Amino acid sequence: MTTTELNKIVDFLKGVPFFSEVNKASLLELCKHLKTETFETNDCIFQKGDVGDAMYVILEGKVKVHDKSHVYSVFSRTDCFGEYAIIDDEPRSASVSALEDTTLLKVEGAHFVELIASDRGFTKGILSVLIKRHRELDVIQERLTGSKKEIELANSKMSGLINGAMDAIIMFDSNFRIVLANASAKELFENDDVLKRNILFFMDEESADLLESLVKSDLDGGRKEMNSYLPKIVKVIGSNEKETFNEGTISNYGDEKETFYTLILRNIDDRLLAESKINSLKNQTKYLEEEIKELTSVYGIIAQDKSMHKVLSLVEQVANTEATVLIQGETGTGKELVARAIHTASERSDKPLIRINCGAIPANLIESELFGHEKGAFTGATSSRKGRFLLADKGTIFLDEIGELPMDLQPKLLRVIQEGEFDPLGSSSTIKVDVRIIAATHRDLLQFSKEGKFREDLFYRLNVFPIVVPALRDRGDDVCLIAERMVQQFSKKLNKPVQPLTHEQKALFLEYQWPGNVRELQNLVERAIIVSKNDQIDWNAIIPNSIKENKTNQAEDSNRILTSQELVQLEKENILKALRQTNWKISGEKGAAALLKLRPTTLTSKIKALGITRPV
């Protein structure tokens, strides 16, 4: 920088209020280390939270002090900003951006402090400016000298009252500059040096707009007495970015020339957290009570058959992992019992298992049930509600009949599985959850996906660890074990003792095909206990007699000619019956081929030709 340019900058600084009392020689020393920076329109000079190391003087142009879109002040030529950065290294309390092409003089804090220490003239000039800034306070103090003791006593009492208060008490002027803050307020703001700073800098945009509108309304209304509760909860953001929610009151005092405002804030984070936990527990209790009512069995998993032992082995393998499980099986096979077994054996067993039947809830309500909703999200939403995914956080959610989930909700479920997050209905806030997902269906989801009724990517996400629960008719003697346990339970519950099952009665249970599986068995046993007389049950009258029905049907259809397709289906059913009786053993003395009087190779060819596959 040339001598002429230096002199021009010195003359300019003499017109800057902050440096107006500093002599030219000292200003010349200051200018030797000044840096000139230029910014184009909308350029960011520094952002809120940046650590400050310098102040700025506007040589040309205009800048705005703001927090996102909320503008606090506009500065132009000869104005300064960022002065606090020359004496401390606190984060910037607001952002500053150029409103037009702007040239700034940057005064670095290190050089400013060095001049204060070494240049008496520079120090004297800066102190003179500061003294002028406080001249009004000095005048007031002189006028009150006569009553100094009374003022000190009153001030002592007031300070003790204010500083001892647990609520944050802040007083500020009509320009939002803080003139008083108690210890609780400084703790709330995470800043011990808040005097003269703009209170709006410590609030989010919505809360700052609220406070600004209240003050503006008061000023426009002729400065009438104001003492009211804040209409909304305000969000305070401390210097260390800690966010708190507060309720409070605002009042005004002063005269026609100047008005001051007292803001009292009370942190309600603990209360909101407690209310949230209470509501969560209430909802959780409600869902758990509903689920207890919906349980289809209280007997646990009774299994001796190899097919069910294989299921239990898979449960043990997957329980302590975080893998998503898809349980498949016919209706009434006890898929939810398998889901409970997985949850109970997992590390999440002390956390909730939340169940929802995707096929039992109307399509227009299931999104709210799963993901929750905000107040006013739809007609009838008079209050916000937590969804079952949030209730299951840290635990397990069991999505029964997942094949009935509407197509438009499947991408949202896929997002939860992949990213562990979702947006409640009517909310723009994203919620993160840690949930283990177990799904169940009696549908062929792969075929559904090929038909466009289920998302293929969602199917593969759910089918990480498939478990197929066999039908009751494929579980051998398990049907008798389960029936005996049910007889004991219902007999005790209904206070009607009955005789144990005989071998002949067990044969009836083994003979019937149980299309309704365990659920059908449960209903038949309960009805049998109710109608029992003298400790006896006529199981022949209770269990549908498939052999008798078949003979009747055969007699009626004896003259009917079967089609080739019917003959193929009849042969397929006959082979399946033989395979079930031999536990899918084909060759050997006790194999299906021997029962059918066929060669093992011939039976194998027929099995392939008829598309017969063994249940997993």
Automatic annotation (TrEMBL):
The keyword Amino-acid biosynthesis does not apply. Residues 301-530 form the Sigma-54 factor interaction domain. CDD domains: AAA (cd00009), CAP_ED (cd00038), PAS (cd00130). SUPFAM superfamilies: cAMP-binding domain-like (SSF51206), P-loop containing nucleoside triphosphate hydrolases (SSF52540), PYP-like sensor domain (PAS domain) (SSF55785). Residues 18-133 form the Cyclic nucleotide-binding domain. One of its GO terms (biological process) is regulation of DNA-templated transcription. SMART domains: AAA, cNMP, PAS. It holds the Pfam family cNMP_binding. This is Cyclic nucleotide-binding domain-containing protein. GO terms for molecular function: ATP binding; DNA binding. The keyword Transcription regulation applies. Keywords: ATP-binding, DNA-binding, Nucleotide-binding, Transcription, Transcription regulation.
